[in-house]
Amino acid sequence: MSSHDADPPNPGAPAVPDADPRPRRRVVSYVRRGDRMNPSQQRAWDERDAWMVEVARGEQSTSVAEGARVDWPEQFGRVAPMVVEIGSGTGDALVAGARAHPDWNFVAFEVFRPAMASTMIKLRAEGLTNARLVEADGVAALRELIEPGLLTELWTYFPDPWHKTRHAKRRLVQPEFGALVASRLGADGVWRIATDWAEYAEHCREVLDDHPDLVNVHDGPAPRTPERPLTKYEQRGIRAGREVTDLTYRKRT
Protein backbone atom coordinates (compact mmCIF):
# COMPACT_ATOMS: atom_id res chain seq x y z
CA MET A 1 0.00 0.00 0.00
CA SER A 2 2.25 2.64 -1.22
CA SER A 3 2.10 6.17 0.08
CA HIS A 4 0.38 9.32 -1.05
CA ASP A 5 3.73 11.13 -0.92
CA ALA A 6 4.35 13.83 -3.47
CA ASP A 7 7.85 14.11 -4.92
CA PRO A 8 9.69 16.89 -3.02
CA PRO A 9 10.58 20.02 -4.97
CA ASN A 10 14.15 20.61 -6.05
CA PRO A 11 14.95 24.25 -5.18
CA GLY A 12 18.00 24.21 -7.45
CA ALA A 13 16.19 23.05 -10.57
CA PRO A 14 15.44 25.56 -13.33
CA ALA A 15 11.86 26.65 -13.82
CA VAL A 16 9.88 24.77 -16.44
CA PRO A 17 7.10 27.11 -17.61
CA ASP A 18 4.88 24.40 -19.08
CA ALA A 19 5.32 21.91 -16.20
CA ASP A 20 2.19 20.69 -14.43
CA PRO A 21 2.20 22.57 -11.09
CA ARG A 22 0.27 19.81 -9.30
CA PRO A 23 2.35 17.50 -7.07
CA ARG A 24 2.93 14.06 -8.54
CA ARG A 25 1.68 11.17 -6.42
CA ARG A 26 2.92 7.65 -6.19
CA VAL A 27 0.57 4.91 -7.29
CA VAL A 28 -1.20 3.55 -4.22
CA SER A 29 -2.81 0.19 -3.54
CA TYR A 30 -5.66 1.51 -1.41
CA VAL A 31 -8.41 4.11 -1.36
CA ARG A 32 -8.60 6.02 1.89
CA ARG A 33 -12.19 6.29 3.04
CA GLY A 34 -13.76 8.88 5.32
CA ASP A 35 -12.85 9.20 8.98
CA ARG A 36 -16.30 9.54 10.57
CA MET A 37 -16.44 7.60 13.82
CA ASN A 38 -19.21 6.43 16.12
CA PRO A 39 -18.98 7.54 19.79
CA SER A 40 -17.13 4.42 21.00
CA GLN A 41 -14.61 4.70 18.19
CA GLN A 42 -14.09 8.38 18.93
CA ARG A 43 -13.42 7.62 22.60
CA ALA A 44 -10.89 4.95 21.61
CA TRP A 45 -9.22 7.35 19.18
CA ASP A 46 -9.01 10.05 21.85
CA GLU A 47 -7.17 7.54 24.07
CA ARG A 48 -4.96 6.20 21.28
CA ASP A 49 -1.64 6.99 22.95
CA ALA A 50 -1.61 3.50 24.50
CA TRP A 51 -1.58 1.88 21.06
CA MET A 52 -0.51 4.33 18.38
CA VAL A 53 3.09 4.90 17.34
CA GLU A 54 3.71 8.37 15.93
CA VAL A 55 6.22 8.62 13.09
CA ALA A 56 7.85 11.40 11.11
CA ARG A 57 5.79 12.30 8.02
CA GLY A 58 6.47 13.33 4.47
CA GLU A 59 4.11 15.73 2.72
CA GLN A 60 1.01 13.55 3.08
CA SER A 61 -0.81 12.50 6.24
CA THR A 62 -0.21 8.78 5.69
CA SER A 63 3.34 9.09 4.36
CA VAL A 64 6.48 8.17 6.27
CA ALA A 65 9.49 10.46 6.03
CA GLU A 66 12.61 9.05 4.45
CA GLY A 67 14.94 8.01 7.25
CA ALA A 68 12.16 7.81 9.87
CA ARG A 69 12.86 5.25 12.56
CA VAL A 70 11.06 3.54 15.44
CA ASP A 71 12.78 1.88 18.40
CA TRP A 72 10.56 -1.19 18.59
CA PRO A 73 12.17 -2.72 21.71
CA GLU A 74 11.46 0.57 23.46
CA GLN A 75 7.87 0.61 22.20
CA PHE A 76 7.18 -2.90 23.50
CA GLY A 77 9.58 -2.93 26.41
CA ARG A 78 11.20 -6.10 25.11
CA VAL A 79 12.81 -7.87 22.18
CA ALA A 80 10.52 -10.56 20.74
CA PRO A 81 9.49 -12.16 17.44
CA MET A 82 7.74 -9.49 15.39
CA VAL A 83 4.74 -9.64 13.07
CA VAL A 84 3.61 -6.79 10.80
CA GLU A 85 0.17 -6.69 9.23
CA ILE A 86 -0.40 -4.34 6.31
CA GLY A 87 -4.03 -3.28 5.98
CA SER A 88 -5.25 -4.58 9.33
CA GLY A 89 -8.81 -3.28 8.93
CA THR A 90 -10.79 -3.53 12.16
CA GLY A 91 -8.11 -5.72 13.68
CA ASP A 92 -9.66 -9.20 13.82
CA ALA A 93 -6.51 -10.98 12.61
CA LEU A 94 -4.20 -8.72 14.60
CA VAL A 95 -6.12 -9.30 17.83
CA ALA A 96 -6.34 -13.05 17.25
CA GLY A 97 -2.61 -13.21 16.60
CA ALA A 98 -1.75 -11.13 19.65
CA ARG A 99 -3.97 -13.34 21.79
CA ALA A 100 -2.49 -16.58 20.42
CA HIS A 101 1.12 -15.37 20.73
CA PRO A 102 1.48 -13.19 23.84
CA ASP A 103 5.26 -13.59 23.58
CA TRP A 104 5.32 -11.96 20.12
CA ASN A 105 5.13 -8.27 19.16
CA PHE A 106 2.51 -7.23 16.59
CA VAL A 107 2.43 -4.04 14.52
CA ALA A 108 -0.37 -2.94 12.18
CA PHE A 109 0.02 -0.45 9.34
CA GLU A 110 -3.43 0.97 8.50
CA VAL A 111 -4.77 4.23 7.04
CA PHE A 112 -8.46 4.09 7.98
CA ARG A 113 -8.95 5.75 11.37
CA PRO A 114 -12.35 4.26 12.34
CA ALA A 115 -10.90 0.79 11.65
CA MET A 116 -7.90 1.54 13.86
CA ALA A 117 -10.21 2.80 16.59
CA SER A 118 -12.20 -0.45 16.39
CA THR A 119 -8.94 -2.38 16.67
CA MET A 120 -8.02 -0.48 19.82
CA ILE A 121 -11.44 -1.24 21.33
CA LYS A 122 -10.85 -4.97 20.76
CA LEU A 123 -7.31 -4.88 22.14
CA ARG A 124 -8.46 -3.06 25.25
CA ALA A 125 -11.39 -5.44 25.79
CA GLU A 126 -9.01 -8.42 25.78
CA GLY A 127 -6.33 -6.70 27.82
CA LEU A 128 -3.71 -7.23 25.11
CA THR A 129 -0.57 -5.12 25.35
CA ASN A 130 1.59 -6.73 22.66
CA ALA A 131 0.22 -4.80 19.67
CA ARG A 132 0.87 -1.34 18.24
CA LEU A 133 -0.70 0.58 15.35
CA VAL A 134 0.85 3.02 12.89
CA GLU A 135 -1.30 5.27 10.72
CA ALA A 136 0.71 4.94 7.55
CA ASP A 137 0.97 3.66 4.02
CA GLY A 138 2.15 0.08 4.43
CA VAL A 139 4.84 0.04 1.77
CA ALA A 140 6.52 3.21 3.02
CA ALA A 141 6.22 2.07 6.64
CA LEU A 142 7.71 -1.34 5.86
CA ARG A 143 10.56 0.30 3.98
CA GLU A 144 11.40 2.98 6.54
CA LEU A 145 10.33 1.62 9.93
CA ILE A 146 11.29 -2.07 9.72
CA GLU A 147 14.94 -2.99 9.65
CA PRO A 148 16.19 -5.69 7.28
CA GLY A 149 15.84 -9.19 8.70
CA LEU A 150 13.60 -8.07 11.60
CA LEU A 151 10.30 -9.82 10.81
CA THR A 152 9.11 -13.24 11.86
CA GLU A 153 5.98 -12.83 9.73
CA LEU A 154 4.33 -10.32 7.40
CA TRP A 155 0.56 -10.53 6.84
CA THR A 156 -1.36 -9.09 3.91
CA TYR A 157 -4.88 -10.46 4.28
CA PHE A 158 -7.43 -9.59 1.59
CA PRO A 159 -5.61 -6.71 -0.12
CA ASP A 160 -7.66 -4.76 -2.63
CA PRO A 161 -7.63 -6.88 -5.83
CA TRP A 162 -8.10 -3.89 -8.18
CA HIS A 163 -10.09 -5.88 -10.73
CA LYS A 164 -9.86 -3.60 -13.75
CA THR A 165 -6.87 -4.11 -16.02
CA ARG A 166 -6.02 -0.42 -16.02
CA HIS A 167 -5.76 -0.53 -12.22
CA ALA A 168 -3.50 -3.60 -12.01
CA LYS A 169 -0.49 -1.39 -11.26
CA ARG A 170 -2.17 -0.46 -7.98
CA ARG A 171 -2.06 -4.02 -6.65
CA LEU A 172 0.06 -4.37 -3.56
CA VAL A 173 1.69 -7.60 -4.71
CA GLN A 174 4.31 -6.58 -7.26
CA PRO A 175 7.89 -7.78 -7.89
CA GLU A 176 9.39 -4.71 -6.21
CA PHE A 177 7.24 -5.17 -3.13
CA GLY A 178 8.22 -8.84 -3.01
CA ALA A 179 11.87 -7.82 -2.91
CA LEU A 180 11.14 -5.38 -0.06
CA VAL A 181 9.28 -8.05 1.91
CA ALA A 182 12.08 -10.57 1.45
CA SER A 183 14.63 -8.04 2.70
CA ARG A 184 12.61 -7.46 5.92
CA LEU A 185 12.01 -11.14 6.72
CA GLY A 186 14.36 -12.99 9.01
CA ALA A 187 16.02 -16.23 7.95
CA ASP A 188 12.94 -18.31 8.87
CA GLY A 189 10.39 -15.53 8.33
CA VAL A 190 7.26 -15.98 6.22
CA TRP A 191 4.86 -13.77 4.27
CA ARG A 192 1.23 -14.85 4.60
CA ILE A 193 -1.33 -13.75 2.01
CA ALA A 194 -5.06 -14.43 1.80
CA THR A 195 -7.48 -13.37 -0.94
CA ASP A 196 -11.02 -14.28 -1.95
CA TRP A 197 -10.53 -13.29 -5.59
CA ALA A 198 -9.25 -16.13 -7.80
CA GLU A 199 -7.71 -13.71 -10.30
CA TYR A 200 -5.73 -12.00 -7.57
CA ALA A 201 -4.51 -15.34 -6.24
CA GLU A 202 -3.30 -16.15 -9.74
CA HIS A 203 -1.65 -12.74 -9.95
CA CYS A 204 0.17 -13.37 -6.66
CA ARG A 205 1.49 -16.70 -7.85
CA GLU A 206 2.54 -15.29 -11.22
CA VAL A 207 4.50 -12.54 -9.47
CA LEU A 208 5.91 -14.48 -6.51
CA ASP A 209 6.31 -18.17 -7.37
CA ASP A 210 9.32 -17.41 -9.57
CA HIS A 211 10.50 -14.40 -7.61
CA PRO A 212 14.30 -14.43 -7.15
CA ASP A 213 14.00 -13.54 -3.46
CA LEU A 214 11.05 -15.72 -2.38
CA VAL A 215 9.97 -19.37 -2.27
CA ASN A 216 6.39 -20.68 -2.15
CA VAL A 217 6.46 -22.78 1.02
CA HIS A 218 3.73 -25.15 -0.18
CA ASP A 219 4.42 -25.06 -3.92
CA GLY A 220 0.81 -23.97 -4.29
CA PRO A 221 -2.01 -22.76 -2.01
CA ALA A 222 -1.28 -22.94 1.71
CA PRO A 223 -3.48 -24.34 4.46
CA ARG A 224 -5.40 -21.72 6.40
CA THR A 225 -3.39 -20.31 9.29
CA PRO A 226 -5.16 -21.48 12.48
CA GLU A 227 -4.88 -18.03 14.10
CA ARG A 228 -6.51 -16.24 11.16
CA PRO A 229 -10.17 -15.73 12.16
CA LEU A 230 -13.14 -15.98 9.83
CA THR A 231 -14.06 -12.30 9.49
CA LYS A 232 -17.34 -10.73 8.39
CA TYR A 233 -15.59 -9.59 5.21
CA GLU A 234 -14.48 -13.13 4.42
CA GLN A 235 -17.92 -14.53 5.19
CA ARG A 236 -19.49 -12.10 2.71
CA GLY A 237 -17.10 -13.29 0.02
CA ILE A 238 -17.89 -16.93 0.74
CA ARG A 239 -21.64 -16.25 0.61
CA ALA A 240 -21.05 -14.56 -2.75
CA GLY A 241 -19.44 -17.77 -4.02
CA ARG A 242 -15.80 -16.70 -3.80
CA GLU A 243 -13.19 -19.21 -2.65
CA VAL A 244 -10.48 -18.06 -0.26
CA THR A 245 -6.89 -18.80 -1.21
CA ASP A 246 -4.05 -18.70 1.30
CA LEU A 247 -0.42 -18.43 0.18
CA THR A 248 2.80 -18.53 2.20
CA TYR A 249 6.24 -17.42 1.03
CA ARG A 250 9.62 -17.40 2.73
CA LYS A 251 12.89 -15.72 1.91
CA ARG A 252 14.97 -17.61 -0.63
CA THR A 253 18.31 -18.70 0.85
UniProtKB/TrEMBL annotation:
Span list, region Disordered: 1-26
Family: Belongs to the class I-like SAM-binding methyltransferase superfamily. TrmB family.
Keyword Transferase applies: yes
Full protein name: tRNA (guanine-N(7)-)-methyltransferase
Biological function: Catalyzes the formation of N(7)-methylguanine at position 46 (m7G46) in tRNA.
Reaction it catalyzes: guanosine(46) in tRNA + S-adenosyl-L-methionine = N(7)-methylguanosine(46) in tRNA + S-adenosyl-L-homocysteine
Residue positions binding substrate: K164, D196, T231, K232, Y233, E234
Pfam families, A to Z: Methyltransf_4
Gene Ontology CC, one term: tRNA methyltransferase complex
Residues where S-adenosyl-L-methionine binds: E85, E110, D137, D160
GO molecular function terms noted in the UniProt entry: tRNA (guanine(46)-N7)-methyltransferase activity
InterPro entries in the record: SAM-dependent_MTases_sf, tRNA_(Gua-N-7)_MeTrfase_Trmb, tRNA_methyltr_TrmB_bact
Pathways per UniProt: tRNA modification; N(7)-methylguanine-tRNA biosynthesis
Keywords (A to Z) from UniProt: Methyltransferase, S-adenosyl-L-methionine, Transferase, tRNA processing
Enzyme Commission designation: 2.1.1.33
UniProt cross-references to SUPFAM superfamilies, sorted A to Z: S-adenosyl-L-methionine-dependent methyltransferases
Taxonomy, superkingdom: Bacteria
